[in-house]
Each structure stands twice: as C-alpha cells, then as structure tokens.
Amino acid sequence: MKSITIIIIVLCSPIFIFCQDITGLWKGTMYNDSTKLSLEYEIVISKEKGKYTAYSHTWYVIDDKKYYGIKKINVRVAKDGKIVMQDAKLIEDNYPGPANKNVIQLNVLDLANIGNEASLEGEFVTNRSKGYRALTGHISIKRV
To answer: pTM to 2 decimals?
Structure first.
C-alpha cells in the first residue's frame, strides 16, 4: 500500500507544479468597491532560483486625466495554493501630488487554468493610513 501511495504522489507532482506556474504577463482589471470603477491592471511575474520577482502597473483616471503607478510587489504561493501579492515599493508614477508611502495593497488570488487560458482572480485590500481609508475590491487578470 505504501508503494502505491508513493507512485501516485510521484505521478501527480508534475501536474501540481505545472498548475502553479504563475510567471508571465497578466492583464485585466481591478474593481474598486468604493468608487465602483474598474481600473486597468497589469502584473509581470518572473521566477529565478525559486524566488518570484514581480511588478504591477495600475492606471487611475481623475478629472479625465490618466495617471499611472508602477510598483515592485512581493509574491508567494500560500500553503492552500492561493497567490499572495503585497506592495513592496513604488518605483514610478505620474500622480498629481506626492504618493502616500504608507498605503499597501494586498492581493489574495486563485489560479485557474481552463484549457490554454490561465487566470488569477480574487480580492484585494489596502490598509488604512492617516490620510486614506482602507479600500477593498476584486482583481481579475489573465495571462497574456
């Protein structure tokens, strides 16, 4: 019985590894529950020596002017298989004023592979800071 269990684990391991491939360019939307707006959202993820490196690109529209922010984000795969992403550093932006460095976004996403199409979907939250209240919403992105 023990040898059958080992054989099943060995045969299924490549399937689990393949299903957890999250590298690449992901494009889609981020829906903000407070403003009821969908924003363009992109993430690029790479993996080197077993460690993920990722960057996000978000667009905001204020008074018909488009603003962007590019952030370095930390990525990990949780024990339950969820993809957890958290802002690490704002790299570049064209915001109308100084960016609040104390606002951090946390994404908790599920990976789904349907045919040849991979998608990441789930919730995001931001922390509450001195000048901003916490926000919540939903992210839906697909690998390009």
So the answer is: 0.81
